[in-house]
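Q: How would the C-alpha cells look for this protein?
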Amino acid sequence: MRKALKYLAFLALAGVLLHFSFKGVKWSDFIYGLRSCNWWWIMASMAIGILGFLGRALRWRLLLRSINREVTVRESFDGINIGNLTNFIFPRAGEVARCGVIAKTKKVSFERTLGSVVIERSLDMVCLLLWMVLLLVFKWGEFGTFIQEEITQPLFGKMSSLLWPAVVAGTLLLIAVAAVWFFRHTISKFSIVGKILRIAKGLAEGVLSAFRMQEKWMFLLYTLFIWLTYWLTSLTTIYAFPQVGHLGATDALFLMIIGGFGWVVPVQGGLGAYHFIVSLALASVYGISQTTGVVFATISHEAQALVMILCGAASLISMSMWKKRISQTN
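A: Here is the predicted structure in C-alpha cell form.
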C-alpha cells in the first residue's frame, strides 16, 4: 500500500507539472508544431541516446571489473537499460533495479554493486553542476538570471531550510557509526546486526572500487563521451525544429543542463518536470512561445523516453534468453 501511494503521489506531481506546462496551449498549434518537425534529426538524437546508454554501461563496467573482472558489457548494458525502464514505473528505483541485474549474475554482490552506483551517480551530479558553473562563468549575461531565479535560489533555499536537520542527522549518524565500530565484536554476535554490518561493508567496498580501478583515465573519457552524447542529443533536437533553428551549440548546452535538472526530479521518467522547466527556459531566455516550447520539450523527452523503453524491453528479453541458456546448460 505504501509503494502504491508513493507511486500515485509521484504520478500526481507529474500530472500537475504537465498541466502547468500545457496550460494555455492550443492543440491545433501543438499538432502543427509536431508536423513541422524534421523527424530525421529526431531519429539521429535517438541513435545518439543509445550510444549514451552504451557509454554509461562501459563506464559502469570499469567500476564493476575492479571487483570482478568477469562482468561483461552485455550485463552492464542490460542493467543500465532495465534501470532506465524501471524509473518510468517507480522514480529512482532504477538504480536499485540495475544492481539487481548484476547481482543475479552472482559475479558482484548487490551491496557492492550499489556502492559503485553511488560513486557513478554522484559523479554525474558533480558534472551537471560543473557544466552549469562553466556556462555561468562565460555566459552569465545570457543565462545567469534564469538559472539564478529558477534553479539556484529555489534549490539553495530548500537546502538552507534543511541545513540544521541535516547537521543533526549527520552528527547522530557519525556517533552511531563510531559506537558500532568500537563495539563491533560484541554486537556482531547478534544475527541482524551482523547482517547490517555485512551490508555496510559491501557498500563501502563498492564505493572504494573507484579507487582500485586501474583504468581511471578511460573512466574519465567515458564520462566525457556520455556528456557529449547528452549535448549532441540536445543539439540535434534543436535542428529538428524550424522555430528554434536559430539556436546554436551553446544554447544546446544550456538546454541540456536545464533538462538534466528536469530528469533529476523524482517523477516517473522526468515526466512533466522536464516539460515544465525546458518550456519555461525557452520562454524566459529566448522569448519563444509556450506552444513551441512545449512541443520542443515533448518531442525531446518522448524521443528519449521511447529509446529507454525499447532498450529496456530488449534487455529484458536478452536476460530472459540468457537465463534460459544457463538453465539448459545446467
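The chain has 13 helices and no strands.

Residues 16-329 form one domain.

Upvote if useful.
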